[in-house]
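tokens incoming
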């Protein structure tokens, strides 16, 4: 399988990190990422600054390549390498998002939310139930979607108890990130490692126990602060599943199996298996239209589900891949690799990756690691998958789930309400690394 490192493709970087243009490209990336981190305050979607930064960085890389006498063909080869990697991951994610939207439209998640509210659990029960559901749901759906779906339950039940909402949302962020770490479908970083061929699909399940520890340790301490009370009764009505809801869920499971089979058996990129599943979903959507016509129960337009995908995330991913790829082509990733992995050693460097991903989104961090062409064994690749996936839980801005819940909480869950629990989250982070060493070392 092709790897996400230019060196493995025989593409040499320019080695022009000390030039004025090279330094300017780094500053452009830093400024763009400043806007990404300030998304909560500015309201500007994170994809916009990184797309602009990617274009500017590659423009400077092209000028540097011309000045260094690099041929146009070699420049295009380096550029198209990033395009190939982005295209494969984008198609994979687009299908997964389309399925999630289809299940949401068929009331799958709304029925789950309604059931949990009508059960009238106590705050402590609800804390653990929502956390466990988020943990396992994020292994199938992405961590952002899982946190938002279950977050709606926490917000609905705890609307009169701000303390419960604040702790409950911290719990969801930790659960979503931990649950996404042991499944290629749970987090973009895990998916990137899988598609790059550094670990097989079932290898990631070796991270299940460390991921559980990563969630359980902080959740235990946070649960001690959850009010031991009963929330006010609600008159929540039961939500009925629309026709075909169960079938769409089954098709999603079969699509996951198809993606795994294409990769493991046919040695083709897994996005082809996902596209096969999308085609089947399109045909099934047509069948629903034939059966129910224009009735609300049967109105199922697959292209509406594609339209409603998280395009901000997909475009953000585009900007990150090309911005980091451009900096790597100039030569900065080679410098970073020497400083971290040659200077510190693999294990300390991979642990440091988690702390970096608490400040900078884990997508560019993991893409940078993959682009370094590191010679690591399976244990180390699983370690960096675990740390990059769960390190973002330490700060609310460290993951998409945290940023999204801050926006949805109506100021009940904030940066500082999350920061209060950073020590116990860091303890869970350290414990999961130790357990990974015990189980997989």
């Amino acid at each position: 399988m092709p790897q996400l490192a230019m060196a493995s493709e025989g593409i040499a970087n320019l080695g022009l990190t000390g030039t004025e243009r090279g330094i300017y490209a780094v500053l452009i990336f830093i400024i763009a990422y400043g806007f990404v981190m300030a998304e909560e305050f500015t309201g500007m979607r994170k994809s916009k600054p990184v797309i602009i930064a990617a274009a500017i960085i590659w423009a400077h890389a092209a000028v540097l390549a011309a000045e260094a006498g690099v041929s146009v063909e070699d420049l295009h080869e380096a550029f198209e390498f990033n395009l190939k990697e982005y295209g494969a991951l984008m198609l994979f994610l687009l299908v997964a998002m389309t399925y999630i939207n289809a299940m949401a439209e068929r009331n799958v998640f709304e029925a789950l939310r309604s059931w949990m509210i009508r059960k009238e659990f106590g705050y402590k029960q609800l804390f653990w139930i929502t956390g466990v559901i988020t943990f396992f749901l994020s292994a199938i759906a992405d961590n952002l979607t899982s946190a938002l779906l279950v977050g709606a339950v926490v917000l609905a039940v705890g609307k009169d108890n701000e303390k419960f909402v604040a702790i409950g949302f911290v719990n969801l962020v930790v659960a979503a990130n931990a649950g996404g770490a042991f499944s290629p479908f749970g987090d973009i970083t895990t998916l990137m490692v899988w598609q790059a061929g550094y670990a097989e699909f079932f290898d990631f399940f070796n991270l299940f126990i460390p991921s559980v520890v990563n969630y359980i340790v902080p959740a235990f301490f946070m649960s001690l602060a959850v009010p031991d009370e009963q929330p006010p009764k609600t008159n929540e009505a039961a939500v009925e599943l629309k026709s075909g809801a169960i079938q769409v869920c089954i098709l999603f499971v079969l699509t996951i199996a198809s993606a795994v089979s294409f990769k493991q058996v046919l040695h083709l990129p897994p996005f082809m298996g996902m596209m096969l599943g999308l085609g089947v979903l399109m045909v099934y959507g047509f069948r629903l239209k034939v059966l129910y016509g224009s009735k609300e129960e049967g109105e199922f337009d697959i292209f509406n589900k594609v339209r409603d995908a998280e395009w901000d995330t997909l475009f953000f991913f585009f900007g990150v891949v090309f911005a980091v790829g451009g900096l790597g082509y100039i030569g900065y990733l080679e410098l970073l690799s020497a400083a971290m992995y040659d200077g510190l050693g693999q294990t300390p460097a991979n642990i440091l990756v988690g702390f970096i991903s608490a400040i900078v989104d884990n997508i560019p961090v993991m893409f940078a690691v993959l682009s370094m062409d590191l010679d690591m064994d399976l244990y180390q690749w699983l370690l960096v998958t675990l740390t990059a996936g769960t390190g973002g839980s330490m700060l609310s801005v460290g993951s998409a789930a945290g940023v999204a819940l801050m926006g949805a909480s109506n100021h009940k869950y904030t940066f500082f309400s999350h920061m209060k629990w950073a020590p116990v989250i860091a303890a869970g982070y350290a414990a999961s690394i130790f357990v990974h060493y015990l189980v997989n070392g």
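note: Residues 1-9 have pLDDT under 50 and may be disordered.
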